Amino acid sequence: MSTAPAQSVPPGFASLALARGVVGFYRLWHGTLGLRGAGRLINHLSPRLSGLQCYPLRLPNGHIAEVDFRELSAFGWLNTMLGDDNQETPLIEAIAAHLSGDSVFWDIGANAGILSAEIARRTAIGEHHYFEPNPRIYPWAEAALSHLPQARGHPVAVSSSEGTATLFIPVNLSAFGSLEGNCRGEAIRVEVETVSGDLLVYERGLAPPSVIKIDTEGHEVEVMGGMRRLVAEYRPLVFFEHIELSDEQVRAMTPEGYRVGTLCDTTGAILDRLDRSAGHNSALVPTER
C-alpha cells in the first residue's frame, strides 16, 4: 500500500489544450449525442497526460475545481453537469424533503460534494456542514459549495472520538475510502484528523443537525457511536448507506427510540423495515416522526 496520495504534475499549455479537446469531445459524444465509449479515451490518456490530472473543471456554481480524471469522482462531477442520472437521486430528494430554511444538515463523507451541492440546489438550508477527510478530494467539495454562505466545510473524519486515524483510499476510487481498512486492491494510506459528533456540538459549538447523511464505507457504526448525546437530545433524522454493514451492525447503531427504514431506490419512499433488496440506503427515524 502507498502511504501518500499520487501527485499531479502541473500541466503545460499544450497538455492542457489537448486535455480540453478530449473533455470537449466527451461532452459532445457522451453528453450531447448520448453515445458510449468516450470515457475510455479519457481513461487511456489520463495516466500520461498532465492536463487531465489537473483539469480546471468549471462547476455549476461557476467556481473552478482542479480535478484529476484518473479519479472516478471527476467523472461524477462531469456527468452530473451533463445531466446523467444520479444513482443517489432518491437519497438526495428524500433528504431535501426533510430540510427547510431553519434546518441544519450534516453531510458526513461528502467526497467531491456532488450530493451536498444537489441538495442545496433543491432546497434552502439554515446551516450546511460537509465533512470529507481525503486531502485530494476535499478541495473539490469546497469549490462546489463555496458560493453558499450557509455552507461550511470540515476536512476531518467524523468517528467515535477525537484524534487521528488512517484513511485507506483505493487508487482512483476515493468514494470508497474508509477508516475501516476494508479496501479491495491497492490503496493509499493517509493520516487524518478524527472528531466525534458530540465533540463538534458540545465543545466546538456547531449547531446540532436536523438531518444527517453518513456514507463512510463501513464506519457508520463508529460515527453513530460518537454522537450518542446529540442524537438523544436533538433526535435528528439519519440517512446512511448500509452496503458495508451487516444486519447486526445496523441494529447496533440504531439508537433507543429510533426505527430503521430502507430508502427505496425506485420510489424514494422510506420503507418501514431493513430491506436490502429495495435499496442501498437506509434511515434511522425517530419514533415520534
Automatic annotation (TrEMBL):
Record keywords, A-Z: Methyltransferase, Transferase
GO molecular function, one term: methyltransferase activity
GO biological process: methylation
Keyword Metal-binding: no
Domain Methyltransferase FkbM: 107-248
Pfam families assigned to the protein according to its UniProt record, in alphabetical order: Methyltransf_21
Listed InterPro entries: FkbM_mtfrase, SAM-dependent_MTase, SAM-dependent_MTases_sf
Highest taxon above the source species: Bacteria
Keyword flag Transferase: yes
PANTHER family: METHYLTRANSFERASE, FKBM FAMILY PROTEIN, SLL1173 PROTEIN
Protein name: Methyltransferase FkbM family protein
Species this protein is from: Haloferula helveola
Lineage of the species this protein comes from: Bacteria, Pseudomonadati, Verrucomicrobiota, Verrucomicrobiia, Verrucomicrobiales
